[in-house]
Amino acid sequence: MISQGHIVGLLNPEILLELEQNPSGEIAQITSLCSALEIRYDWFENETEWPSLSSRIRSIFPDKLQIGTIRLVRDGGLFDNSSATMRLKNWGQILTEEQTPDLLDLEQDCLFDFEALNALASARDVKIFISQHNFLRIPPYPVLTTLVEDAKRVGASGVKIAAMSNAEGDSDPLYDFIQEFSKDFPYFSAFAMGNTGKPSRILSLLKGANLSYGSILESSVPGQLSVRLMHEILTKITEINDETAIRQFLNQSLL
């Protein structure tokens, strides 16, 4: 596997409960294939347990990179859009705990909260990256570059773009985007959603991104690959080095 790249596994209440109850079971074995874990706080209905989630996860996987996310509905999450500014209170509680995520994910259209969130995060040596989600199409290249410009302007530690692919070849601008800008940030993620975007979750890492997200159990978004399958492909990286080859491998694996 490429050493610079992280397979990021997404954690929900079902997965965390299974990890705690059966730390050597199948789910734990799959999760161990991830080098990073995203705590999807918005998937945990009881907000009072949010501050303790990082500690619970570190008790099982102490060395894995943790990403904290409270995703809004408009960006594919469960946190109410009208309560977007209320997340600062949640983050404040999360960041006062002994154990915290290493990274926080803030949407590009919520940069009005960056300064306040960064003040909370910096006090705990927690970094922030800026994300953009487009469930219709891959944005034009100039729109992609605004994500980089905004991240640099506020001093974010990385960027993430997840956008919908509607046809083979749609992901090509994302690869150009990665190759041009990934070296400018410690953390970089750019991939396509949808069935035709599946290969980008692997190829993006080969192009220079270092975060790509996979499912530990069922997929949470269209075109998301399982952690187990991503790991299998990446261990054969010398044999599979372009989108066509990755697509062929996926087609064979899913038969």
Summarize the topology.
Blueprint: E1 6-11, H1 13-21, H2 26-31, E2 36-40, H3 50-58, E3 65-69, H4 87-94, E4 103-107, H5 114-122, E5 127-134, H6 141-154, E6 158-164, H7 172-181, E7 187-193, H8 200-207, E8 211-214, H9 227-234, H10 243-253
Parallel strand pairs: 1-2, 1-8, 2-3, 3-4, 4-5, 5-6, 6-7
Helix pairs in contact: 3-4, 6-7, 7-8
CATH superfamily placement: Aldolase class I
How many discrete structural domains? 1
Shape: globular
In what range is the share of β-strand residues?
A: 15-25%
Number of strands: 8
Strand order within the widest beta sheet: 7-6-5-4-3-2-1-8
The end-to-end span amounts to 24 Å
Helix content: 25-40%
Radius of gyration: 17 Å
Task: Indicate the low-confidence ranges by residue numbers.
Answer: none
Query: What is the third-level CATH name, the topology?
Result: TIM Barrel
Chain-averaged pLDDT: 94
Describe this structure in words.
With 255 residues, this protein is α/β, with parallel strands linked by helices. It has one domain: TIM Barrel, CATH 3.20.20.70. Helices cover 36% and strands 18% of the residues. Strands 7-6-5-4-3-2-1-8 form an eight-stranded parallel sheet. The chain is globular and about 45 Å long. The protein starts with 5 loop residues before the first strand and ends with a helix.
